């Protein structure tokens, strides 16, 4: 941040954040590899979550484009985004869906 924000402003903060998150991801994957975890199990269902996220983004982005910016609109976007994401987890039958179903039965 200190190196990129003065010259690039907000874009520098975004680039610095992406670099920092990538470094953390690489470190965590390296540590997980030493624990002998299978990467296939770690990323099981990745594409289902990706699809759910893309659908949620599309809905929230559409709402944002059609409404004015304000606190009320932001609250609506957050609620709708959460509901759409949860619905997609159910429709796609993700691992989280089965864990939620099992938890609610108890």
Structure, briefly:
This protein is an all-alpha fold.
List keywords for this structure.
single chain, 106 residues, mainly alpha, 6 helices, 81% helix, 0% strand, flat
Strand content: under 5%
Main sheet? none
State the total count of DSSP E strands.
0
Structural class: mainly alpha
State the share of residues found in helices, binned by percent: over 70%
Termini separation: 46 Å
SSE series: HHHHHH
pLDDT < 50 stretches = none
Count of alpha and pi helical runs: 6
Q: What quaternary form is this?
A: single chain
What would the principal axes of the Cα set say about the shape?
Answer: flat
- Mean of pLDDT: 89
Q: Radius of gyration over alpha carbons? A: 19 Å
Describe the protein.
By secondary structure, this protein is mainly alpha-helical. Helices cover 81% and strands 0% of the residues. Helix 4 runs antiparallel to helix 5. The N and C termini lie far apart (46 Å). The relative contact order is 0.08.
What's the arrangement of secondary structure elements?
Elements: H1 5-8, H2 10-34, H3 39-42, H4 46-66, H5 71-91, H6 95-105
């Amino acid at each position: 941040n200190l190196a990129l924000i003065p010259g690039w402003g907000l874009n520098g903060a975004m680039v610095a954040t992406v670099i920092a998150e990538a470094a953390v991801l690489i470190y965590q994957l390296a540590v997980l590899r030493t624990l002998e975890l299978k990467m296939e199990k770690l990323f099981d269902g990745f594409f289902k979550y990706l699809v759910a996220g893309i659908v949620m983004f599309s809905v929230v982005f559409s709402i944002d484009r059609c409404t004015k910016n304000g606190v009320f609109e932001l609250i609506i976007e957050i609620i709708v985004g959460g509901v759409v994401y949860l619905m997609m987890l159910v429709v796609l039958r993700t691992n989280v869906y089965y864990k939620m179903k099992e938890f609610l039965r108890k």
